Amino acid sequence: MLKNRKFISILSLLLIACLCLSACGGNQQPAEEQTPVEGYTFTDALGQEITVNNPQRVVSLMGSFSEVWVLAGGADTLVGTSYDTVDNRDLGLPEGIANVGTYQDPNIEEILALDPDLVLLSSETTRTDSHVALKDALSEAGITAAYFSVTHFEDYLNMLKICCDITGNADAYQTNGVAVQENIEQIIADNKLETEPSVLLMITFSGGIRAQSSDTMTGKMLADLGCHNILDDNPSLLQDFSVENIIETDPDYIFVIPMGNDDALAQKNLKENVESNPAWSSLTAVTSDRYILLPKDKFLYKPNAAWADSYAYLADLLHE
Question: Domains in the chain, ordered, with CATH?
Fold first, then answer.
């Protein structure tokens, strides 16, 4: 009888313990029902602290930014883009996606009509700061506006990281960012020149020709590969571009980036502004067949996940 009472007592204690554990566990939510993180916060190119909460309607006002968002896994949430997204990049976006004006002249009414919860803008628009001018209007409408500045690969990597953090796609950052960075580092290690050839980098546009320094996108790539930009020694070339100054420095390479969609216009600008000078044909770069027109897709538009291809393209030219 004593054994039975002992057994019953032990059983009772076990039941009480189970009930206590059950009660304690009842205060915990299943993992899938726990409150999600309140949002992701970062600092944009204007120094603003931006917080986003799983945006589902995103508008991008620059083609390269649209591509970064797609590379970060956000294609399904992109509802509006600038015209250059469609004109210059094949992102496989649906035909019905809204166009909200050009990169230089976005249409605020069309942007607001899309009711976005995030707009991606450039802090470096070249005409009347058109993107920055939209900041107050977007803020008054309660729309999150995040500004980015992308010139070099490192800038792209930073923007991609932010976008991947927003979308929660860590694999996309590894594939489209870290792996590209490792590829670039290997290309530089394998191809960096020790002789530091002198280079002139030019860009053609409707108004003529402008020299570019090592601070520009292509300028930095050339510097990373061991080239010396003559503009670094002659900054006056930025304001006073002349064939006479070029002849005096006589660069080993001359690279030209055509701006715009008309390559014939680029060739016309070159003929009228530089090649018409009789002394041009005597330059070392010209006589050595190192006067080279670079493709726009690699050196005018931001190459993003294909940035390593641009480095490789230049490396091949410098080792011919």
Answer: 40-168 (3.40.50.1980), 192-318 (3.40.50.1980)
What residues contact residue 113 under an 8 Å CB cut-off, 6+ apart?
Answer: none
Q: Which amino acid is at 132?
A: V
**Beta-carbon count within 10 A of 36 CB:** 7
Q: Tens digit of pLDDT for each residue in 85-116?
A: 877 777 888 778 999 998 888 999 999 999 99
pLDDT tens sequence across 221-276: 999 999 999 998 888 777 777 788 888 889 999 999 988 666 677 777 788 778 88
Cα(112)–Cα(52) distance, rounded to whole angstroms?
18
Contact present, 123 and 151 (Cβ < 8 Å):
no
pLDDT, tens digit, for every residue of 144-153? 999 999 999 9
For residue 127, which amino acid is it? R
Phi, psi values for residue 294, rounded to 5°: -95, 145
**Are the CB atoms for 266 and 204 separated by under 8 Å?**
yes
* Rounded Cα distance, 107 and 6, in Å: 83
Which of these, 198, 203, 192, 191, lies nearest to 226 by C-alpha position? 192
Strand partners, 205: 208
pTM of the predicted protein model: 0.84
